[in-house]
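Fold it.
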Amino acid sequence: MRNKIILSCILVAVILAAFFLYGENSKEIEVAENIEPAKKEISVYVSGQVKTPAVVTLEDTGNLRGVDAVNAAGGLTDLADTEIINLAEPLVDGQHIHIPAKEIIFQEIPAAENSAPNKSAKFAQNNSLININTADKDELTKLRGVGPVIADRILEYRTNNGTFENIEDIKKVKGIGPKTFEKMKDSITVN
């Protein structure tokens, strides 16, 4: 009988210990579940035709796009040319987004309206053609629709694939589509 009492006391002690330990562990689990994970952020450099060119830091929601970085930099200026960049492109930490300026074309003014000599000019473009097979980065950025990033891609394409056989081959470069090609086709050559 005495052994039964001792055995019963040990059994009750084990059950109480199990309840006590389970209760403490469940409190630890509840505390761990209430801790918020650290917010992940990315930094992107936005330059060119934005109101406040800067390195902007954004909370990484997993779905950030170029437009988010531009908005964080104050938005676009009136001179921003958004036809040659992709504002829907996903962002990555350390990325550089450059917003180029629109090409400004000076119109010919009839002599009757202006006593100054009759002239017309094009901004960032001259009468000579740019050879896309030999041009350096500075020359390539003079082309309408080509900024530093696209110029680098053209140079990289030439390094990896050789020279362009005709001017239409430039459309094989990432970022140069039909619209950009139309802007530059009268200014380029492969000869």
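The chain is about 35% helix and 15% strand.
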